[in-house]
Structure formats: structure tokens, C-alpha cells
Amino acid sequence: MKNNLIIPALLIGAGLMISGYFIGNMHQKGIQQNRYVQVKGLSEREVQADLAVWPINTILTGNDLKSLKTKIETQNKAVYQFFIDQGFTDEELTKGMTNITDAKSNIYNTNPSVGFRYLAKSEFTVRTNDIKKLQKALAESLNLMSSGIVLGSKNEWRPIEYIFTGLNDLKPSMIEEATTNARQVAEKFARDSNSQVGPIKMARQGQFSINDRDQNTPEIKIIRVVSTIDFQLIN
User: Fold this and answer.
1) Cβ-based neighbours of 72, under 8 Å, separated by 6 or more
2) What's the domain range around 67?
3) What is the secondary structure of 187-199 as a DSSP string?
4) Which pLDDT tens digit goes with each residue over 108-138?
5) Could you give the C-alpha distances from 209 to 129, 183, 203, 206, in angstroms and in order?
6) pTM for the complete prediction?
7) Can you state the angle between helices 131-140 and 65-85, rounded to 10 degrees?
8) Residue 97 and residue 89: Cα distance in Å, rounded?
9) How far apart are CA 160 and CA 138, in angstroms?
10) Is the domain of 58 the same as that of 141?
């Protein structure tokens, strides 16, 4: 009877030993899997804008619509010819609308003795990839004052908008640089904790940002991305 119980007991004992081994091994692996370090990697680039947009307003006043119309047409032709003389093409120049307001029809006008009844505002936009050519034209535009023409920027807070359009070409190298930077930080942490950096456990790419380098040079941009990466730590 006792002999009949020995074999089942041995089998049960062996099963418990094997189960304990696997449970302990799984626990050890779980501990290793939970050992990781989270770091941030930075990549920055300083680039020149490759597109500039200059929205322009020109203003005329008058009391007679017929004569005002003639002045508007003459002035608009002069502005257009100015930019053609500066080397711009038809594709870079866009004539916008001309809006005319009547001071007498404005119910909010609190100054009925205003000198002119009509105010005409013409819109004009320069859009070009040649930044230096636009900046030269901006300086030369003062010469139009001798003809009684003053170019005003439609957006006073940002007279010319400078844009960088080549972000997609930079993304791969910048992500690679941010990842390399993050690994260097992780390796420093691993050395301090007597560990080694293993594979990436999780990676979260941040948003790319494009900002002016400073207020005085908006044509120079700073591109920035920060990636957050979890690296496995191994003994």
C-alpha cells in the first residue's frame, strides 16, 4: 500500500519543483522587464526661411469717385511696375481687392468734418522664395514716396511673414539625432547604476516646432523636437 503512494508523491513533488522553477524564472524576468529608464532626447536646427509673404496695403483718399478711381488705377500700376523692376515675376505678385469706404455713410463716424469723404484701400501681395530680393525691394520701396505712394504692411505686428517649408526633409535626421542624444543620456544613467542600456521599450516622438530665432531676424528659424524614450536596463 505504501509502495503505491510513493510514486504519486514523487510525481507531485517533481511537479511542484518544476512549477516553482518556472514561477521563479517568470518573476525574475518580470523584474528585469520592469527595469528601464525614461529619458528625453533633443534635436535642434537653425535654418533660413525659404518663403516670404508680404501683404501690402496702399491708401488713397478723395471726394469724387470718378477721379478717385483714376488715381487708384494709376497707383496700382505704379506699385506693380515697381516690383517688376525689382526682378519679380507675375507669379510672385498678386493684386487683391480695393475696398472703398464712405465716411458719410458710416453711422459710427463721430467726426463729420473729416477732410475726405472716400477712403480707398488696395491690397497687394508679394510671395517669393527669394528672400534677399524681397528684403532689397523693402528697402527700395522708400523711393515710391517721391511719387506720393506709401506701402503699408497689412499685418502691422508682422509686416513680412517668413516661412520654412523644408521640414519633411529634416525630420528623419532630426529624429535620429534625438534618439542618439537620448541613448547617450540613458548610458550615463546606466553607468551610474551599474547597468547596461538594452533595447528601446517605448518611444514617444514630440511635436516639431518652428520659431523665429529672435524678433530682429524672423527670416532665421529654429526647428526643435524632443523625443521621450524608455530604454530597457540589463545587468
Assistant:
1) 60, 98, 120, 122
2) 51-163
3) HHHHHHTT-EEEE
4) 665 554 578 898 999 999 999 999 999 999 8
5) 21, 22, 19, 9
6) 0.75
7) 130
8) 20
9) 10
10) yes
